[in-house]
């Protein structure tokens, strides 16, 4: 009996091996394509932070003298260069950038009415003194509201302006000086060309005509035009570079 069982078991094993040998070989594993790294989007620039900078540019504007006699010179041009420093901060909320900025610029803005403008010092003749207005510095304190498209910021700005307005006859080109407050507004665009560095171009208009007028008051500098009311407006076109100390 045992011989029969053993023989049957051997037959089953042998039959299984034969059956397995008749099966086709398993296909080789399919080669997987190499993994391709997904491109990583560059980080969106963050404009938040405190910054320091320098700026420089050109200023042009106009002045107007109203003489004690009631005569008026009319508007005459004034222009010159300026350079100075900037400090400010930004706070970014999505694409909106809120900020504040103040600056102080030395300037050499000068304008003359011309020697043919009738003054109370005499007839309008060549060589007669002209009314001269100058500005030796201008400072602004402004709020800024901007729209950021990653590394480019478009902004508008408005605030107060503070300047040293000088007025006197030329000759002798000596001045009465008045430090006056006005208002200013403008627009600009700023570009972050590196992680902490930005450059900007902006236009500002400053008006000292309607708040507290400059004046030429002394006879030493203004002759018989002493007491003249002097108005002054100024446009500033500036470029600047800022260093941002990083997001908050």
Produce the secondary structure layout.
Layout: H1 2-22, E1 49-66, E2 76-93, E3 96-112, E4 130-149, E5 152-170, E6 176-192, E7 197-207, E8 214-216, H2 219-222, E9 228-244
Antiparallel strand pairs: 1-2, 1-9, 2-3, 3-4, 4-5, 5-6, 6-7, 7-9, 8-9
Report the CATH topology name.
Porin
Computed CA radius of gyration, to the nearest angstrom: 39 Å
CA-CA gap between termini: 92 Å
Task: Output the strand order for the largest sheet.
Answer: 1-2-3-4-5-6-7-9
Q: What is the CATH domain class?
A: Mainly Beta
Beta strands, count: 9
What's the shape?
elongated
Ranges where pLDDT stays below 50 over 5 or more residues in a row are: 4-21, 120-125
Describe this structure in words.
With 248 residues, the chain is mainly beta. It has one domain: Porin (Beta Barrel). The protein is 10% helix and 56% strand. It is built from 2 helices and 9 strands; from the N terminus they run αββββββββαβ. The protein has an 8-stranded antiparallel β-barrel. Strand 5 and strand 6 form a beta hairpin. It is elongated.
């Amino acid at each position: 009996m045992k011989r029969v069982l053993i023989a049957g078991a051997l037959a089953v094993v042998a039959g299984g091996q034969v059956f397995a040998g008749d099966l086709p070989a398993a296909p080789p594993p399919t080669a997987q394509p190499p993994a391709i790294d997904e491109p990583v989007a560059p980080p969106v620039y963050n404009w938040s932070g405190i910054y320091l900078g320098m700026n420089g540019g050109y200023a042009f504007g106009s002045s107007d003298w109203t003489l004690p006699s009631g005569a008026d010179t009319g508007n005459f041009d004034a222009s010159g260069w300026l350079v100075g420093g900037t400090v400010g901060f930004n706070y970014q909320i999505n694409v909106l950038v809120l900020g504040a900025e103040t600056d102080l610029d030395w300037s050499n803005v000068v304008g003359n009415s011309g020697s043919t403008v009738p003054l109370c010092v005499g007839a309008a003749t060549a060589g007669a003194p002209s009314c001269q207005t100058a500005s030796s510095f201008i400072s602004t304190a402004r709020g800024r509201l901007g729209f950021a498209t990653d590394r480019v910021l478009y902004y508008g700005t408005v605030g107060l302006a503070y300047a040293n307005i000088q007025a006197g006859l030329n000759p002798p080109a000596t001045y009465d000086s008045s430090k006056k407050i006005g208002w200013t507004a403008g627009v600009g665009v700023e570009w972050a060309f590196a992680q902490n560095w930005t450059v900007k171009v902006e236009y500002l208009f400053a008006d000292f005509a309607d708040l507290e007028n400059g004046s030429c008051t002394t006879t030493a500098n203004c002759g018989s035009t002493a007491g003249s009311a002097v108005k002054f407006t100024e446009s500033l076109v500036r470029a600047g570079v800022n260093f941002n100390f990083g997001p908050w």
